[in-house]
Amino acid sequence: MRNLPRLAFVLFIGTAVTIFCTLLLSSGFLTADKKSSASRKGQVFIGEEREENKIFAPTLGPLNVSQQFLKMASLDAHLLRRGFTNEEIGSMSPLGKWLLAPEGTPPPQSNTNKFYLILIWKYGQFLERRHIRRFTSTKFSPWDQCSVQNCMLSYDENDLQRADAMVFHLHFTKSPSELPVRSRTDQRWIFLTDESPFHTFLHGNQKLSHYDGLFNWSMSYRMDSDVPVPYGRTIRASDSSPIKQWTAIVRTSKTKLVAVMGSNCSGRNGRWSYVKALKSFLRSDLDILGRCLDGNRTICPGHFDQDCTALSAYKFYLSFENSNCEEYLTEKVFWNAYHKYAVPIIMGASRRDCRRLLPPHSFLYADDFADANALADYLKYLDRDDERYLEYHKWRDYYRVINEHGYFGSISKHYCRICEALNYNSVALKVYTKLERFWSKANDCSPAGA
């Protein structure tokens, strides 16, 4: 068996399990109230809901066991080709796998036609600025372009007992005492964080262990979250025929070399020291926008509120995050670089994360260069060789970039993803008994790229 290719092995296992489960079903061995338990990365599964509580959408009907396993085997095989390991794939929810599937892949089978109430605890009005208004004066539907429409959003704490899901934004939570008393075991408690593990909490000297045993689901930019909300995604395009429209855009709009924009002038990875060194080599070829390192504060005011159209003129963008943590790729990559037809130069997530989550040959990685001087020399070389530079854009023929962060007017899919998770993810309830096994600055972050 070890000599079989990984893809053939996955399909073999999927087929074997399909036959086994079909035999079990035909023999009546599977019962509705059968219990299951498991533990993975601090998650304890505490049982499945009874079958009478599962109502399938009548318009679609449930997929049979064979169809379900074949569909999941296909998604797993696609993720293997992207570079994920079997263990990583096993840690992903059905929603997470679907979000990385090729364009046009149907969503997972819905487990219900129930109507869900989602309660955003305490900070709903503040979060509305990004996830509903998208930093504008307009209110957008949280279900805009969502694959499901059977959810309602509430900020009213009087809905505590009625809510099917509760969302707690850890960045603003001051202590566990802010959380309500729980009275329903079937209510999904979800912790939300858009920041890296270094910046999970804004208030006080808190520890994740203070919240052990409270949450059922995770919600973060990482794809192994129960509710993945990445800042952006790149997926294989459905049309396999190359479209060269990007070539004209890149050839005509790129009049400057490299830029960086920022308002947070700190970072545990020494990013601004690197920018300072790079500036000493590139001089006028590197433009610093924002308040850091005496940058230009007038060309792009508003930061998240308004799109910085000036970035469209640059060939490269320094996508330097404030932390080097697992899968931490933000709008700096997906909007400031890819959306602007620029090549991102990445400091943040690991090189391996970038290879799994981003299109091939679409980025430069800062740690691949001996120092800032070596990077500067390579950028100048690419600036002189148009054809070599254009090779970093050829992926645009085969991949699509999807921005979903809510900044600069882009759509936010946070609340849609919760609704989708309620529809698509396993109905088995679980608890994060040890949060730091899933979310940890010690285990998930490093001072430098790897």
UniProtKB/TrEMBL annotation:
The lineage of its organism: Eukaryota, Metazoa, Ecdysozoa, Arthropoda, Hexapoda. Pfam families: Glyco_tran_10_N, Glyco_transf_10. Pathway: Protein modification; protein glycosylation. It comes from Cardiocondyla obscurior. The keyword Glycosyltransferase applies. It is a single-pass type II membrane protein. PANTHER family: ALPHA-(1,3)-FUCOSYLTRANSFERASE C-RELATED. This is Fucosyltransferase. Belongs to the glycosyltransferase 10 family. Gene3D superfamilies: Glycosyl transferase family 10, C-terminal domain. Residues 117-232 form the Fucosyltransferase N-terminal domain.
